[in-house]
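User: Can you help me understand a structure? I only have the sequence.
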Amino acid sequence: MEQEIINTIYTIVDIETTGGKFNEEKITEIAIFKIQNDGKVTKFHKLINPKKKIQPFVEKLTGINNQMLKNEPTFIEIANEINEFTNDSIFVAHNVNFDFRVLSKEFSRIGLNFKRKLLCTIEVSKKVFPNENSYSLGKLVKSLGIGISNRHRADGDAEATLHLFNKLRSNLNIEELNKFIRKI
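Assistant: Let's start by predicting it. Here is the structure, written out as tokens:
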């Protein structure tokens, strides 16, 4: 058991979407930070052409519009890269249910099954920092002294989540952290 824990690879993921009805959202941007066994961090970041109109409130929030995505790859064109980059890792996100649901839905649309072990930084934060007023990413990282740039963009939010995750890991032993990992 101890060996398996030591060899754990984490991928910290954040996505931006078109917005819209539940399970009809399409990804417009994805950022993934991979923490290797040796502590080395690598980054994957792509804008994605959703081939679907972005909701106006999302465009205003993120600054991402259809014009800037028209020449970007579609999801099917980068799906294998995402799958390989996150393979054999624990999928970590702030509100992991959202990011994983949307990403796995994109994979299912192209006929691929995307399964990962999941860890939610909101759930872990509530255990490690029980007295916070808010567990929204922006308010939580500010309260903890973690800088966040490029807010509401996948790369900025994923980087802030990476720093949050590292802070959470430094406050828990491995057995405590593993209690938060869910299998799909």
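Now, to help you interpret it: The two ends are 20 Å apart (CA to CA). Residues 33 and 159 are 7 Å apart (CA to CA). Let me know which part you'd like to focus on.
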